[in-house]
């Protein structure tokens, strides 16, 4: 199977739709951004809660981090199910349904009576939220032509960026003043609003934006067919490069990111609220990329974005890890967010096109690799922290991210040369 990027279909909604349908599509993307905000907040809310969980449950920092790894592992593994289901029943409808399920899982987290029950609830929360970002990306890939897609994806991901930053801040504020339970009630409310608006908009979408595809095979139902979908994705050499790269990106970025709050709290004595506030700058850096993504894409191209993003994020994380004062975390968090989203958005645009005829399965494979990488990174970092401390771990992971980003730039350059020899 060729990995070449095909010409976008001429019947793309954004090409042929009238003003009313185009407005509906824009509103639909805005609502997806709201759902991604809730998903991002749910993903990162545990980061700032770790010290509070340590004190409330009398456990180690590594044990408390199970709330992060459980979410990430479930999120990654659930992609095997949601990608093909999105293709079968309609991506937008499936997103609305999992947002409704995420309301219940967030409430289970808030009401968990013991730490093991909290970990189990976070496991369920990760599985429920797994469909939101990848299926939203795949849906955007269905309705937006390739040459217009990267800036649209960047704007859509503003919701996730704000969600990630807000989750850390909400967690830190609650850990200092209200306990670890209230953030999960807030997340449940966010998912409830997102689910209601998604169900409403799904009824207004044109049929072409709610397309479904049968997964029934002649020899049985979906299991064999679903595995076949993912085998076809993995058969594409370039897809394997993208999936391995995003696994390592997730490992190095969020293996470090998950412990920045704890590092600032324990090393410099900052309150968890203050440390969480500093991590809001990570989101501000990501939003800066989203705002200027179009000119940056034109100026740097995908290869330049990956290389410069890796260099910036590496320098910033290294600064956070070894700096003698917390003040260095101010520019460090901002530049980390800017650099990370330069790399990640480039990987996302490649994910939407690495197997266009199986876009749901392809993007779900991408998300699965990313979140499994995060779970491995957090677990590895938690183990290393007991040996070398948070600062050294953050610094070491920054170097790993730099190597991954530059390797991807080299491979992307070679891939383009193979598509356009001479």
Q: What do we call the CATH topology?
A: Growth Hormone, Chain: A
- Provide the CATH superfamily: MFS general substrate transporter like domains
Mean pLDDT across residues: 82
**Number of helices, counting only DSSP H or I runs of 4 residues or more:** 18
| Anisotropy-based shape | globular
Q: How is the topology of this model organized?
A:
Elements: H1 13-16, H2 19-57, H3 61-64, H4 66-89, H5 91-111, H6 115-129, H7 132-143, H8 146-156, H9 158-177, H10 182-204, H11 222-234, H12 237-257, H13 260-268, H14 272-291, H15 293-322, H16 329-351, H17 359-388, H18 390-419
Protein architecture, described:
- This protein is mainly alpha-helical.
- 83% of the residues lie in helices and 0% in strands.
- The longest helix has 39 residues, at 19-57.
Task: Provide keyphrases for this structure.
422 residues, mainly alpha, Growth Hormone, Chain: A
Summarize the model shown.
This protein is mainly α and 422 residues long. It has helices spanning 13-16, 19-57, 61-64, 66-89, 91-111, 115-129, 132-143, 146-156, 158-177, 182-204, 222-234, 237-257, 260-268, 272-291, 293-322, 329-351, 359-388, 390-419.
């Amino acid at each position: 199977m060729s990995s070449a990027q095909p010409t976008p279909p001429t019947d793309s909604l954004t090409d042929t739709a009238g003003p009313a349908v185009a407005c509906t599509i824009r509103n639909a993307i805005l609502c997806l951004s709201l759902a991604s905000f809730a998903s991002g907040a749910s993903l990162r809310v545990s980061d700032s809660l770790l010290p509070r969980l340590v004190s409330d449950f009398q456990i180690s920092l590594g044990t408390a981090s199970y709330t992060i790894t459980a979410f990430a592992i479930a999120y990654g593994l659930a992609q095997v199910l949601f990608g093909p289901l999105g293709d079968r029943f309609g991506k937008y409808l499936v997103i609305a349904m999992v947002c409704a399920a995420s309301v219940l899982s967030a409430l289970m987290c808030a009401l968990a009576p013991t730490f093991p029950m909290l970990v189990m609830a976070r496991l369920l929360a990760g599985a429920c939220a797994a469909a939101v970002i990848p299926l939203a990306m795949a849906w955007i890939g269905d309705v937006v032509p390739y040459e217009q897609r990267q800036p649209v994806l960047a704007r859509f991901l503003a919701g996730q960026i704000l969600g990630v930053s807000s989750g850390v801040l909400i967690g830190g504020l609650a850990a200092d003043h209200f306990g670890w339970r209230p953030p999960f009630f807030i997340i449940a409310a966010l998912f409830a609003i997102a689910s209601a608006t998604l169900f409403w908009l799904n009824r207004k979408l044109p049929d072409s934006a709610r397309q479904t595809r049968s997964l029934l095979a002649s020899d049985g139902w979906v299991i064999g067919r679903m595995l076949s979908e993912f085998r076809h994705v993995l058969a594409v050499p370039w897809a394997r490069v993208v999936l391995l790269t995003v696994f390592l990106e997730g490992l190095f970025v969020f293996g470090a990111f998950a412990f920045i709050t704890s590092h600032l709290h324990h090393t410099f004595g900052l309150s968890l609220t203050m440390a969480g506030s500093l991590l809001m700058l990570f989101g501000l850096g990501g939003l800066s990329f989203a705002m200027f993504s179009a000119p940056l894409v034109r100026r740097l191209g995908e290869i330049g974005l990956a290389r410069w993003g890796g260099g910036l994020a590496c320098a910033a994380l290294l600064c956070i890890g070894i700096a003698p004062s917390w003040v260095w975390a101010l520019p460090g968090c901002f530049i980390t967010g800017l650099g990370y989203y330069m790399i990640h958005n480039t990987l996302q645009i490649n994910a939407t096109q690495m197997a266009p005829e199986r876009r749901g399965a392809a993007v779900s494979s991408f998300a699965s690799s990313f979140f499994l990488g995060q779970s491995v990174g957090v677990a590895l970092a938690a183990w290393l922290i007991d040996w070398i401390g948070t600062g050294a771990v953050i610094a070491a992971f920054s170097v790993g991210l730099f190597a991954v980003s530059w390797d991807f730039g080299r491979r992307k350059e070679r891939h383009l040369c193979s598509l356009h020899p001479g």
